[in-house]
From TrEMBL:
It holds the Pfam family FAD_binding_8. Keywords: Cell membrane, Glycoprotein, Heme, Iron, Membrane, Metal-binding, Oxidoreductase, Transmembrane, Transmembrane helix. The lineage of its organism: Eukaryota, Metazoa, Chordata, Craniata, Vertebrata. It is a multi-pass membrane protein. It comes from Meleagris gallopavo. It catalyses: NADPH + 2 O2 = 2 superoxide + NADP(+) + H(+). GO terms for molecular function: metal ion binding; superoxide-generating NAD(P)H oxidase activity. Residues 296-397 form the FAD-binding FR-type domain. One of its GO terms (cellular component) is NADPH oxidase complex. PROSITE patterns: FAD_FR. This is NADPH oxidase 1.
Length: 570
């Protein structure tokens, strides 16, 4: 079980994730610098800068960057759009699909940018409010003081939104539309970011799930945040008559009989709200996405079989009209008997050739524990299940490689169950279109019980490939990373037996962890001119090790072995 799988990067890139972060940071810095220089030089805001100084450019540039990132934050979570681009679009080649697999990483990068520019925007406006307040209380003949008193001549002709010496920053923050929406937006963003940490998602998924829906409040607040227009600039019509660069001195020292064009006082207007222009299209797209999800979730799902495996793993076999899948894909599952609102992602463990689709659920949190208990305690009526999907992942590309290296950790073996089952069916059907010539499968488990539910499939594959004369097609190695002395002693005493004492398979279980440098060196030697796809469904620490090994063992010569890393993103 895990979040929507994704990820994947070519091994020839030494630090792709780091480069992606640096590139996104560079794009945002470029945009911020461009808009900062623009607002720092724009003559419409000459008089506004006389009051606020450079804090105006800091606030406006960060606002533009906030709009830009808000426009992009929803796109990586439009799963149906990504699946269409990944699998249905003819122009979507492997390189582009790999980039689409980084959707959640990109979503996080955009969120970090939002948090950063929200902080910059908030701090800049706190400085602005202090400058507004200072200018309002000034009694000299300085330009900022004169500009702040213009509301006394005409209630509509004002540049400084603070019209009283008693007005405080707190008053503006909690009584004006920009201030109040800014506070709400900031609080919503803080809650969403803090609840998205690895610890919260792993241990309190419900907290992450519910707080993330504060994005609705965030976007509503963002759209109406600039409606009141507290920050103003000189109107275009006024600039034609009263140019700020030439006429600023006359505003402070105006002669009694003035006949120049500068004698006319400048007029100011609010900066039009622009956020809605940036986010309207993504919001409409996301609304259609949610409507499609709701429609698909309402289609009837029939649970045809319920199996409890060792290690507290629940298998659900289901059927749904019109359901079509590919290997390695995932679905979102809801059980109304457990929770009406919560949807959790699960990798499909069935093969496309089967007349049902299945998932395996391991107890790893409140929701998974409750759904396992619900199905264990069922009496006459099977609990209702709703399904959204399937959606594409990096594992779909496994058959594009001549050589594939599959690495699963614990329940992370689920996408490879689908792949290996599909291979079994293709061997039965004598499929000649299968491009893949060799598969290496590594499964790492902490306890022996985790092996049990997958043993039957591996045993069937062993037998079928031996009968087909392709016993060398699949090489698999099982690693037990947690054991006691009794298990080790029993394995040692029965080492010469035909089958393994832990799994009952011909391949003996290895105690400990793989030596990845040795494994990659052996693969590079066995396949010196092949492109090897490395697929992982497991923890981030293991991903870093495999990604580094992919880079180290890939040849710089394009005619020799290349390792490409692909990861299921949990």
């Amino acid at each position: 079980m895990g979040t929507a799988p994704g990820g994947g990067c070519g091994s020839h890139v030494k630090t792709p994730r780091l480069k992606g972060k640096a590139a996104w940071l560079g794009i945002n810095i470029f945009l911020f610098t461009y808009y900062f220089l623009f607002f720092d030089q724009d003559e419409r805001y000459f008089y506004t800068r006389a009051i606020l100084g450079s804090a105006l450019a800091w606030a406006r540039a960060s606002a533009k960057c906030l709009n830009f990132n808000s426009m992009l934050i929803l796109l990586p979570v439009c799963r149906n759009l990504l699946s269409f681009l990944r699998g249905s679009c003819s122009c979507c080649r492997r390189t582009l699909r790999k980039q689409l697999d980084h959707n959640l990483t990109f979503h996080k990068l955009v969120a970090y940018a939002l948090a950063l520019f929200t902080a910059v925007h908030t701090i800049a406006h706190l400085f602005n409010l202090e400058r507004y307040n200072y200018s309002q209380q000034a009694n000299d003949d300085s330009l900022h003081a004169v500009l702040s008193k213009m509301h006394l001549q005409n209630s509509n002709k004002w540049l400084n939104p603070i019209h009283s010496n008693q007005t405080t920053v707190e008053y503006v923050a909690f009584t004006t539309i920009p201030g109040l929406t800014g506070v709400i937006i900031t609080l919503a963003l803080i809650l969403m970011v803090t609840s998205s940490t690895e610890f919260i998602r792993r241990n309190y998924f419900e907290v992450f799930w519910y707080t993330h829906h504060l994005f609705i409040i965030y976007f509503i607040g963002l759209v109406i945040h600039g409606v009141a227009g507290l920050v103003r600039g000189q109107t275009e019509e006024s600039m034609k008559e009263v140019h700020p660069q030439r006429c600023a001195e006359f505003l402070v020292h105006k002669p009694k009989e003035c006949r120049q064009e500068c004698c006319k006082e400048p007029e100011f207007g609010s900066i039009p709200a622009e956020s809605w222009k940036w986010v309207l299209a993504p919001i409409i797209l996301y609304i259609f996405e949610r409507i499609l999800r709701i429609w698909r979730a309402q289609q009837k799902v029939v649970v045809t079989k319920v199996v409890m495996h060792p290690a507290n793993v629940l298998e659900l076999q289901m059927q749904k009209k019109g359901f079509r899948m590919e290997v390695g894909q995932y679905i979102f599952v809801n059980c109304p008997a457990v929770s009406l609102l919560e949807w959790h992602p699960f990798t499909l463990t069935s093969a496309p050739e089967e007349d049902f689709f299945s998932i395996h659920i391991r107890a790893a949190g409140d929701w998974t524990e409750r759904i396992i208990d619900t199905f264990q305690q069922q009496k006459l009526e099977t609990p209702r299940i709703e399904v959204d999907g399937p959606f594409g992942t990096a594992s779909e590309d496994v058959f594009l490689y001549e050589v594939a290296m599959l690495v699963g950790a614990g329940i992370g073996v689920t996408p490879f169950a689908s792949i290996l089952k599909s291979i079994w069916y293709r061997f039965q059907q004598n499929d000649q279109t299968l491009k893949t010539k060799k598969i290496y499968f590594y499964w790492l488990c902490r306890d022996t019980g985790a092996f049990a539910w997958f043993n039957d499939l591996l045993a069937s594959l062993e037998q079928k490939m031996a009968e087909s004369g392709k016993a060398d097609f699949l090489t698999y190695r099982l690693f037990l990373t947690g054991w006691d002395t009794s298990i080790a002693n029993n394995a040692a005493l029965n080492f010469d037996t035909v089958t393994d004492t832990v799994t009952g398979l011909r391949q003996k279980t290895i105690f400990g962890r793989p030596r990845w440098d040795t494994e990659f060196s052996a693969l590079a030697t066995a396949h010196p001119r092949s492109v090897v796809g490395v697929f992982l469904c497991g923890p981030e620490a293991l991903a870093k090790v495999l990604q580094r090994s992919c880079h180290q063992h890939s040849s710089l010569d394009p005619r020799k072995v290349k390792f490409y890393f692909n990861k299921e993103n949990f």
